[in-house]
Amino acid sequence: MSAVRKLDRTSASVYLHEDTYLQREIDAVEKTEYIAGILYPRWQMMAGGRLVHNLLCSNIIRALGNTLAGSKCRTLTSDTRIHNPRTPAYLYPDVVVVCGKPELRKHHSLVNPTLLVEVSSPKSVEYDRTTKLLIYDTIPSVQEYLIVSQVAQEIILFRRDEAGRLAFVEIATETLILESVTCTLTIRDIYEDTSFEDDESMDDDDDTISQ
After folding, report:
1. pLDDT, tens digit only, all 211 positions of the chain
2. 14: Cβ–Cβ under 8 A, 6 or more apart, which residues?
3. Which of 31, 32, 106, 131 stands 20 to 30 A from 23 (CA)?
4. What CATH number belongs to 48-210?
C-alpha cells in the first residue's frame, strides 16, 4: 500500500472498522475512500487540476452514456461507491459502467461493476496504476479498467485476460475500443474542451497537499 501512503501519511496511522466508516459516509460532505481500515480523502486523488479532472469526467460520462443508450449497460458518476469485500475496500471511481442488474450491498455499495474509469493526476497516477488496479482486479465482474491522464491525451487500458487478470492492453491516443461494453470512443471526444496549460488550480492543489 505504499502508493496510497504517499497521498496521506496522517490517516494511514489510524484504523477504522468498515461499519464505522460506512456510517460516517452517510452524512459526509467530502467522500472518503477506505482500504483495509485506512481512510484516504478523495480530494487528494484529484490533486492538481480539478477543472481538467471534472471536464474529463463529464466528457467520458457523456460519451459512454450516448453510446450505450438503449443497451443493458448504464453509466454512473463518481458518487457511486464500489465495494470489494476481499480487501475490504470501498472506492469511488470517477466513472462506473454496470451491465445488467446492479447488485448493492453494505449501505448501497455496488459490487458488480463492469467497467471502471479513473482520471489520474500526477499525485494519484501511481495509486491508480498499482493499489487500485490490484483491488479492481479482484472484483470478478470488472472486465476493463481505464486510467485517463489529465496531463496528456492518453488513456491506459487494462482488460481481463484468459488467465482472469486485468492485464495491460495499450496506451490509446486516437481511439479506444471497449470490448466489455461493445463500443468505440475517440480520444478527441474524451478530451474535448480541455486545456492542460490553462488550469490555474494545478499549483494550488499541489501546494495544499504538500503542507
Report:
1. 444 444 444 344 578 999 999 999 998 888 899 999 999 887 665 555 688 999 999 999 999 999 999 999 999 999 999 999 999 999 999 999 999 999 999 999 999 999 999 999 888 999 999 999 999 999 999 999 999 999 999 999 999 999 999 999 999 999 999 999 999 999 999 999 998 765 544 444 443 333 2
2. 38, 39
3. 131
4. 3.90.1570.10
Nearest to 132 by CA among 145, 123, 122: 145
Q: How far apart are CA 25 and CA 127, in angstroms?
A: 22
Q: What residue type is 149 in one-letter code?
A: S
Give percent helix, percent strand, percent coil of the chain, each to the nearest 5.
30, 30, 40
Contact between 118 and 131 under an 8 Å Cβ cutoff? The reply is no
DSSP H/E element including 42 = helix 42-45
* 143 neighbors 164 (Cβ within 8 angstroms): no
Strands 32-35 and 89-91: antiparallel
99: cell is 451491465
Q: What is the pTM of this model?
A: 0.87
Spatial contact of 57 and 80, defined as CB atoms under 8 Å apart: no
Q: Domains of the chain: which residue ranges?
A: 48-210
Q: Residue 35 pairs with which residues in a beta bridge?
A: 38, 89
List the grid coordinates of 118.
Answer: 479513473
Q: How many residues does the chain have?
A: 211
User: Which amino acid, residue 121?
Assistant: S
